[in-house]
Amino acid sequence: MFCVNSLRIVCSSRAAVHPRWLTTNRLCVSKAVTCMSTSCHNKDTWDSKTNFRGQERELFNYTKQVSTTRKCSTSQVKLNCWNCKQLLERTPTFFCMSCNVVQPPEESTSFFKLMDCDHTFTVDTQKLQKRYLQLQRSLHPDNFSQKSAKEQEYSESQSALVNKAYNTLLKPLSRGLYMLELEGMRIEEGTDPGADSDFLMELMEINEALDEAQTAEAAERIGQDTKGKLADLTEQIDTTLRKGELEAAKALLVQMKYYANIEEKVKEKLSEFM
């Protein structure tokens, strides 16, 4: 047990010089002690001058690495105002609190955070619309026609980003696709090769019935049926996303995409009877 006792002596001396060392690195020391203790028991001999120095060096390199990783993972990059250089406390920041100058958009910010919405599939659309109008009133480029070229540029970029975020989160389909995208998943364009043949046959029949519809009432009935299917899919997608079942959510979103296309075709058909 020479190696463990020697390590405890080293740790005690380190703690005496740096009182916080042992506390902040308690877990690292414990892991190293266990590892080194096992190593000592497995060897018949122990060269205290060579092996212990190597083990001590590994211990402090390990604690330094863990400490650095912890700092990198928990700290957030702070931004400063491009105009007055003051620290920007909130994220996202549209205006500097010190000089009230518009800031460049933070492209990496989630649309949910940008629009002050909960990261869920069932977004409060009224709250979303209220937030959108509030931001556009302050960020619209018309408000910066007399400002500097940089402020005009940033207002246009901010306004465009808010528009994109709003339109993405407003509809269930685009919202769900965006949530999958945040998880690194995408739905490719075109017919899904994994789609059920019965489902595809049903879609063909609906499209044929819509093409053959001779009255607005007939097209409207197809539209109502489609809305009902979309409502059911919305509930199912919400359930799967809450459970973290991304593949199931992806399959349901593929179905929603087809029905959303039919819904648009119904609108076009109804316009023909006006």
UniProtKB/TrEMBL annotation:
Entry keyword annotation includes Metal-binding: yes
Swiss-Prot/TrEMBL GO biological process terms: [2Fe-2S] cluster assembly; protein complex oligomerization
Subcellular location: Cytoplasm; Mitochondrion
One Pfam family it belongs to: HSCB_C
Sequence ranges assigned to domain J in this UniProt record: 110-182
Pathway: Cofactor biosynthesis; iron-sulfur cluster biosynthesis
GO molecular function, one term: ATPase activator activity
Keywords, ordered alphabetically: Chaperone, Cytoplasm, Metal-binding, Mitochondrion
HAMAP family tied to this protein: HscB (MF_00682)
Subunit structure: Interacts with ISCU and HSPA9 to form an iron-sulfur transfer complex. Interacts with SDHAF1 (via the first LYR motif); the interaction recruits the iron-sulfur transfer complex composed of HSC20, HSPA9 and ISCU and mediates the incorporation of iron-sulfur clusters into SDHB which also interacts with HSC20. Interacts with the cytoplasmic form of ISCU and with CIA complex member CIAO1 (via LYR motif).
UniProt xrefs under NCBIfam families: hscB
Name of the protein in question: Iron-sulfur cluster co-chaperone protein HscB
